[in-house]
Write a structure and sequence with these properties.
Elements lengths: L1 E5 L3 H12 L3 E5 L3 H8 L10 H10 L3 E4 L2 H7 L2 E4 L14 H13 L5 E5 L7 H25 L5 H6 L9 E5 L9 H6 L4 E4 L3 H15 L14 E4 L1 H32 L3 H9 L20 H14 L5 H14 L1 H10 L6 E5 L14 H11 L3 E5 L1 H6 L9 E2 L3 H5 L4 E4 L11 H7 L4 E4 L6 H6 L3 E3 L5
Parallel strand pairs: 1-2, 1-4, 2-3, 4-5, 5-6, 7-8, 9-10, 9-12, 10-11, 12-13, 13-14
This protein binds nicotinamide-adenine-dinucleotide (NAD).
The site of nicotinamide-adenine-dinucleotide has 26 residues, from helix 1 and helix 5.
Amino acid sequence: MRVCVIGTGYVGLVTGACLAHVGHHVICVDNNEEKVKLMQSGQSPIFEPGLSDIIKAAIQSEKIEFTTDLAAGVAHGQILFIAVGTPALPNGESDTRYVEAVARGIGSHLSSDYKVIVNKSTVPIGSGDWVRMLIMEGFAEQRATLNAAVLAGAGATEDLVTRKVLSPDPAFDVVSNPEFLREGCAVDDTFNPDRIVLGSTSAKAIALMQELYAPIVRREYAIDKTLPPVPVVETDLSSAEMIKYAANAFLATKISFINEVANICERVGADVVEVAKGIGLDSRVGNKFLQAGIGWGGSCFPKDVSALIHTADDYGYEAHLLKAAVSVNQQQRIIAIEKLQQVLKILKGKTVGLLGLTFKPDTDDLRDAPALNIIEQLARLGTKVKAYDPIIAQTGMRHGLSDVMVETDAERLADGCDALVLVTDWKQFRELDYAKMASLMHTPVMIDGRNFLDRKVLEQAGFRYVGVGRG
Ligand code: NAD
C-alpha cells in the first residue's frame, strides 16, 4: 500500500521504516531539512536498536523515501499518518499546534482521491473530529485560492485538473491509531505489538488499516511467529484516544504506587525488591512496572498524565488519583538528593557523578529525564556534577547538559567523586570495574537510584551502597 508518514521522530520514523520493511511504499515527510538530508543518506537521526539497518534496507529496496515536501507525501499516500510531537504546555495541557499545522497542510493538498488520515500522535480526546474540521478548512482555503486564480485568469486550469479540485468535497476518513511502542525497543515493539487499536466510525477506513497491518497482525515479522495473531481493538475515535492516555496513566500510577511502597519500606525496615517480587507473582498484579526507583520521566508519561488530568478538569472532574501519582513522582525525583545529603551531609563543594542520563536505557532521549532534575538540584546546592552515559558519550550530544561535565567512561567519571548516583539502568553498568572505580573516588558511595546493581558486588568493591526502599 502507499503510505505517507508526517513527522519522523521516535514514532514516525519507526512506523515508516517498519511499514516499508513489511513491503509498503512509504514516503516520510518532515519539516526539519537537516533530519531529512540525514535520513536520505541512510542514517537515523535518533538512536533506536535495529532502526538504521531497516532504514538502509528499505532505501535500497526503494520502499522508503524522505522529503520535506508535504504535497508529494499527500499525493502519494492512500494512508497518511500524522506523527508529530504533542508536548505539554506549561499548564499541563497538550500542545497540539504541530498536529494543527499538519492537518491544515494535508487539507490544502488533498484531491478527491479517498484517503485515510491517521492520528498516530497522542492527541487529546476529541481530536479526531477536530482534525477532520482542520482538514476541511485547509481544503477550503486551497479551493478559494485556486478559484481566485481562475477568476483572475491566471491559467490555473491545469492545476485544477491535476488536483481534481473541481470535483466534490474530498473523500477521507480520520482514524485514531495510538502508538504504544517503547523507546529503546521501538522496532521490536512495532513488529510484536500487544495490540493494535483502531478508532473510527468508517468501515472502509478500518478495512484499509486492517490490510495495512495484516503482516504484523499475522506475526510475519515477530520474534515468536507461533504466537496467536495480534489482537486488533476496533472502537470509536474517542475511546481509541482515551485508551492511549489511560494506558500511560495506569503504568505511571503503578510505578508511583511501588515508589510509595518503597518509601514506607525504608521507614519500617522492609525491602521493596522482596515486596515487589511477592506482590508481582499475583497474576492480577503482574511483575512489570514494579521496580522502585527515582521516578518516571521521558517524553510520554509526564505529558500524557498531565494532559489527562487537564482533560478531566475541562469536564469538571478532579482526577485525584492521577494527581497523587504525579505528586509522588515529583517527590521521588529528588530522593537521590536526600540520600546524598544523608550520607555526605553538606553537598556544597562536593563532586557527584551520575551513571546514566537518558530517561531509560537503549535510547538517546533526554526529554523530561529524572537526571535533568537531579543535575538542576545539585547545581543549585553548589555541587559539581559529572556524568557518564554510554549513548551520550557516543553521540556527543550536549543539548540541555550545560551544568554537567560529561565524561567518556565510567572510570573517568568516578575519578575524584564523593559519590555516584545510578540514574539509568544501562545493562553495561552491571559489568563495570567497581573496585577500580572505588579506588579513584574520595569516598566510594553508590546511590543506586534503580535498585539495579548487586549490593554484595558493590560492597566487596569497597562501596557504601544505598538503594531505594531497601530497609
Ligand atoms: P518527536 O518530537 O521525536 O518527533 C516529531 C517529529 O515531527 C520531528 O521530527 C519534527 O521535526 C516533526 N514535525 C513537527 N512539525 C512538523 C510538520 N509541520 N511537518 C512535518 N514534520 C513535523 O516526537 P515523538 O516522540 O515521535 O512523538 C510523536 C507523537 O507520538 C507524540 O504525540 C507522542 O506523544 C506520541 N508517542 C510517542 C512515543 C515515544 O516513545 N516517543 C510513544 C508513543 C506515542
